[in-house]
Amino acid sequence: MKKLKFRKPYPIEQHKEYQKDIQRIVSVCKDKGYELSEEDAIVAWEKYSEDYFAAGWLVLPKNDDYLFESIMKVMEEDVD
Question: Is there a contact between 67 and 51 (Cβ–Cβ < 8 Å)?
Fold first, then answer.
């Protein structure tokens, strides 16, 4: 039987204009003790923008704690 896997819907190449935002999201999560890939940072911020504001990519908040809290609304800790 063939195995399927979820295709990442947001390749990094399509988000070059947001590279600084993506790196900041990853960095803020790292500072809080969480590892987050750039791909997951893209998905998380787009999901947050869509779910909470029915918008495309939103400007990141200036406050790192608020950014982290926003990301955590759409993420969960991987306990594996």
Answer: no
